[in-house]
Inverse folding.
């Protein structure tokens, strides 16, 4: 069985290219950014503040659930602990 739609030859209607590149040449490898002239480093207090906020927030939540804080377990202690942790994460984005 011959496939009549797959003609090849001078009467097929398709122009054939002879050799050559049919796609644009791409640069090899990945982009490498230039090396910075100075290395940015955050002050030591930023890392200390970050860890302090995260740990205080965690301890506040744990102590709240243990019921040791004045007034017993309260949602306000939980919210304050979560706020400390949130600010700790925000400070963590500034550490270099």
């Amino acid at each position: 069985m011959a496939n009549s739609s797959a003609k090849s030859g001078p009467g097929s209607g398709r122009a054939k290219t002879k050799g050559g590149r049919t796609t644009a040449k791409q640069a090899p490898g990945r982009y490498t950014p230039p090396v910075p002239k100075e290395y940015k480093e955050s002050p030591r207090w930023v890392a200390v503040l970050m860890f302090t906020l995260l740990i205080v927030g965690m301890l506040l939540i744990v102590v709240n659930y243990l019921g040791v804080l004045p007034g017993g377990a309260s949602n306000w202690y939980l919210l304050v602990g979560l706020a400390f942790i949130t600010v700790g994460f925000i400070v963590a984005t500034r550490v270099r």
In short: The first helix runs from residue 44 to 66. Residues 60-96 form one domain.
